[in-house]
User: Fold this.
Amino acid sequence: MHKIIIEGNKKLSGNIRISGSKNSAVALVPAAVLCDEEVTIANVPNISDIDALDEILNSLNAKVVRNEDVIKIDSSKISNKLIPENLSKKLRASYYFMGALLSKFKKVEIHFPGGCSIGARPINLHLKGFEALGAKVEEKDNLFVITADKLVGTKINLDFASVGATINLMLAAVKAEGTTIITNAAKEPHIVNVATFLNNMGAKISGAGTSEIKIIGVDYLHSCFHEVVPDYIETGTYMILASLVGENLTIENIIPDHVESLISKLEDMEVPMKIGMDYITITAPKTLKPVNIKTQVYPGFPTDLQQPMATLLTQATGKSMINETIYENRFLNLLELNKMGATAELLTPQKAIIVGPCGLTGKKVYASDLRAGASLVIAGLVAEGKTIIENADYVLRGYEGIIEKLTNVGAKIKLQEVNK
Ligand code: EPU
Assistant:
């Protein structure tokens, strides 16, 4: 266990280089087991969620070689056995082994995944899709046994444009007989990144990034080289930070189109930005206008930036509203922000009002989940005095080298092992 300690209220200048996308990489690594040869994935973020997937691959006897941001995975001789529950519980993305192993072996045994406690997070749409492809799903005490004599392409309409279900069904359908069409598919950049990876191996997927994805089943997937797309949530987190304490702070190696919804909100807040082909430079303005945020599926405002954004709204002059529509329980950071001096109030479990600007003071706070942790890191960097963020391992799950990246631009921030 770790805590993050921050001495706040310092201007940050220089460059922050964005890493490969967590939510893309955590799908690409399980997708690699579909390959009949070795694959190479580059720009993989060095985060604990990837370490957890590495452990799962090892438990299946895959050959994994990691060297800095490059991971080579050879699953040609993997064994299809039960993934130990302590491993699948470590992260949400373990559910991608459902689609991948079902596709490869027509059978998978796996427990309900872990992940941040931000709502109920059922996987009914994944399971319904597997059944539509011809699989039988049995569940007892959180253990899923999914089997199929064969998988046959079909039309699957998702009730909700779920990221996880869209990717899992692409994985399950990639070697199915015939054509699968997923309608109301999720459109996030990582959906496109995963489809491109599978196509690089010889899959026939079209339409990724639109609401209708077509997958023509193939028998064999060959070796390929693939790169993880830059992380637009990490990008957005640092853009929000820069809007508070940036002095010509440049966020680089990014795809500005992926953060269009955030750029538009920051423009409304009158944050000056210089937007280049693959970078954004921000200097924090003296005052910020309040805005209302409603989280939506991509290209709407991402739920994963809602909590970091809440910290920014504490410094806007006036009343801002947040409507979280994706998760039932993603406001636990507000209690901690209030401890530091914010005035945020929950109107309903999914609606909050924040009135600013308020002076933030360093306090001992608790990271209840990954993006709550990011929200508190930003608050700590703005606040007067010392902030101690407990349960900081959550932050390390999703932000590669956050301590080094922030130290390099002038932050006083350190990671400390608990009991040391
Ligand atoms: N949902 C269902 N049934 C399903 C699937 C989803 O009801 O079968 C509901 C969920 O309960 C939730 C909503 O749909 O309320 C969104 O779920 P979605 O499936 O889109 O999300 P996810 O696959 O569980 C991924 C990311 C999340 C990110 C969401 C939305 C990974 C490993 N996780 O989760 O990332 O919030 O998409 O973009 O890719 C994070 O990075 O902090 C994080 C939580």
Remarks:
- Residues 211 and 248 are 38 Å apart (CA to CA).
- The first helix runs from residue 22 to 31.
